[in-house]
Design goal:
Layout lengths: L1 H18 L2 E9 L2 E8 H4 L2 H15 L5 H26 L3 H11 L6 E6 L2 H22 L30 H9 L7
Antiparallel strand pairs: 1-2, 1-3
Helix pairs in contact: 1-3, 1-6, 3-4, 3-6, 4-6
Length: 188
């Protein structure tokens, strides 16, 4: 359980951090020279960050549900990790966002980027997604043995027996007040 919690929380944090970092950079050719352009992970694809948030919510929800609900939430956690891995790998070599940024900056729709370099941040997002996937698989395998939130205060739906109201002694003012507090008519 501790491994799943730690890997899921760490994985989501790594993915969220990596999606805010520079994934690629290059030079856009203009008439006046080269214009340096950078693209963050969230510019390339927003899927890893969104799936990391879903995975983090599913990680918390694993402990709030029981039985088949826990299985469904564990599957959601594992799928969010898998989706993060796939989206980050797909965005690792993607130059489309860099080309769009160059076209916007230069005003030329045909502007391209030269000398493109990619950073390791997409692969950090892949590692974070793998940690989320691991947390989901651990929850699927061992989640039925983990503790759940307490049901101590939950009602089971059966009607509760009501106590008979105490007889009101008209000579005792505190009995009159207690009857009024219960919503009874003490004069009756």
């Amino acid at each position: 359980m501790a491994v799943a919690l730690f890997s899921g929380a760490l994985g989501a944090a790594v993915v969220l951090l990596a999606s805010r970092q520079t994934w690629s950079e290059g030079e856009a050719s203009t008439a006046g020279g080269a214009l340096h352009q950078i693209v963050k992970g969230s510019d390339v694809t927003g899927a890893p960050a969104a799936l990391a948030v879903v995975g983090l919510a599913a990680l918390v929800a694993v402990f709030a549900v029981r039985r088949s609900g826990r299985v469904l939430v564990s599957v959601l956690l594992a799928l969010s990790g898998l989706g993060t891995v796939v989206a980050a790998l797909g965005g690792a070599g993607d130059d489309g966002a860099l080309d769009e940024k160059a076209a916007t900056a230069t005003g030329d729709a045909a502007a391209g980027i030269a000398s493109v370099t990619h950073t390791a941040w997409p692969y950090a997002a892949v590692a974070g997604g793998a940690l989320l996937l691991l947390a989901g698989l651990l929850a699927l395998r061992f989640g039925s043995r983990w503790p759940a939130m307490s049901g101590k205060y939950e009602r089971d739906g059966t009607p509760r027996p009501r106590k008979a109201p105490a007889p009101v002694d008209p000579d005792r003012p505190e009995d009159l007040w207690k009857a009024l507090d219960r919503g009874e008519d003490p004069t009756g």
